[in-house]
Structure formats: structure tokens, C-alpha cells
Design brief:
11 strands; single chain
């Protein structure tokens, strides 16, 4: 079991930066693939960043590549560093985790989810 709690959402101007964090409890995140998902108003949730275990490469959607960075951080947390934010990046962001074997890439679906944090991009 993994419990995930996001933080760091808020209002940012276009072109600005924001860092989302996700704190995990119940299990060590090192044993899980981790991901960040974005749900824009009126749209389906989509995966924007993902990181498997071990040497698995980071994976990004085309819409955020070179602007967002996913990472595992200290104290059983993970983060999504977002820069050059655009109005279309606004919405709710969810962190997620799914157990995979060491060395595995991102899975097609995730089992554990946070409650979401709101990001608003507006001038």
C-alpha cells in the first residue's frame, strides 16, 4: 500500500515555473514506477511524465518535453519541476505509483494515486 499526497500547486503566470511535490507513505517509492498526470478542464487525464525503476529512462509526453522534469527526491518524495508554463498546462495534476520489477520502464497503468493539486496558469 502506498499513500500519496501532492502539494505545490497554485497560480502562476504564463512563462513561469512551478514545482509540484508528492509525499509517499506506507512503502518505499524506490520499489515503484512513478508518474505525473494532468487533467485539463473537460478533458481526460493524461500522463505527462513517468519514471520506472533502476536505470529506466524518464518518459515525457510531447506537450511537456524539455519543459517538465520528473524526479525521485529525498525522504520518499517525488517531484515535477515545471518551467515555461503555458495556459494549456492548467488543470489538476496527480502523482501516481505502481510496483514494477527493478529495471522496468513505466507501466501502462498505475495503481496508487494522490488526490490531485490544482495548477492555474494565467496573467
Amino acid at each position: 500500500q502506498v499513500q500519496l499526497v501532492e502539494s505545490g500547486g497554485g497560480l502562476v503566470q504564463p512563462g513561469g515555473s512551478l514545482r509540484l511535490s508528492c509525499a509517499a507513505s506506507g512503502s518505499d517509492l524506490e520499489h515503484f514506477a512513478i508518474g505525473w498526470f494532468h487533467q485539463a478542464p473537460g478533458k481526460e487525464r493524461e500522463r505527462v511524465a513517468c519514471l520506472g525503476r533502476g536505470d529506466a529512462p524518464k518518459e515525457y509526453s510531447d506537450s511537456v518535453k524539455d519543459r517538465f522534469t520528473i524526479s525521485r527526491d529525498a525522504e520518499n518524495t517525488m517531484s515535477l519541476q515545471m518551467k515555461d508554463l503555458k495556459p494549456e498546462d492548467a488543470g489538476v495534476y496527480y502523482c501516481a505509483a505502481h510496483w514494477v520489477m527493478y529495471g522496468s520502464r513505466c507501466p501502462p497503468s498505475f495503481h496508487y494515486w494522490g488526490q490531485g493539486t490544482q495548477v492555474t496558469v494565467s496573467s
